[in-house]
Design brief:
The protein is α+β, with helices and mostly antiparallel strands. A hairpin with a 4-residue loop joins β3 (100-111) and β4. The chain has a five-stranded antiparallel sheet with strand order 1-3-4-5-2, with helices on one face. The longest helix has 16 residues, at 62-77. It has helices spanning 26-36, 46-52, 62-77, and strands at 15-21, 82-88, 100-111, 116-126, 135-141. InterPro entries: HotDog_dom_sf (IPR029069). This is Acyl dehydratase.
Length: 159
């Protein structure tokens, strides 16, 4: 986790990351599937996945990709910030052997009384540059010289 990032330190167009993950192996997916109790064969049974379901390979779990986006944003916000909203879509498959790059880009900033809100585009792409998981997020950041974003976080009335 990085040192404190303040609302004033962020500008529209700034990038966050990338956070690299992989290359992924079958054991990575097996461990995640076990932890999530997701036993769908497309995450661990190669013959079933490519033969029966006609998929290109063992699929990286959507919930694992979701966690990577959360990790990037929380690490960036630090202890004094708050990852508030995250939205994304699974638009392409990622398979064993790929290395993923998780990224975010600041698209807007909004001042609130006790903290600032930062809007971001987020996504995950593979080493070939194929975007699989586009989305957006809102992170609350503290103002310089002021208290951290309140915990528990109470969203603004209009956010």
């Amino acid at each position: 986790m990085r040192e404190r990032v303040n609302f004033e330190d962020v500008s529209v167009g700034d990038t966050v990351g990338p956070l690299g993950k992989g290359p992924f192996t079958t054991p990575h997916l097996m461990r995640w599937s076990a932890a999530m109790e997701n036993w769908h064969k497309i995450h661990y049974d190669q013959p079933f996945t490519t033969g029966h379901d006609k998929l290109p390979g063992l699929l990286i779990n959507g919930s694992l990709k979701q966690q990577f986006i959360a990790q990037l944003l929380k690490d960036w916000a630090g202890r004094d910030g708050w990852m508030w909203k995250v939205r994304f879509q699974f638009r392409a498959m990622n398979v064993v052997g790929e290395t993923l790059s998780v990224w975010a880009r600041v698209t807007d900033k909004r001042e609130m009384p006790d903290y600032g809100l930062v809007d971001l585009d987020v996504g995950i792409s593979n080493e070939k540059g194929v975007e699989s998981t586009p989305g957006s997020a809102v992170v609350a950041l503290p103002y310089r010289g002021r208290a951290p974003v309140p915990y528990p976080f109470v969203p603004p009335a209009a956010g």
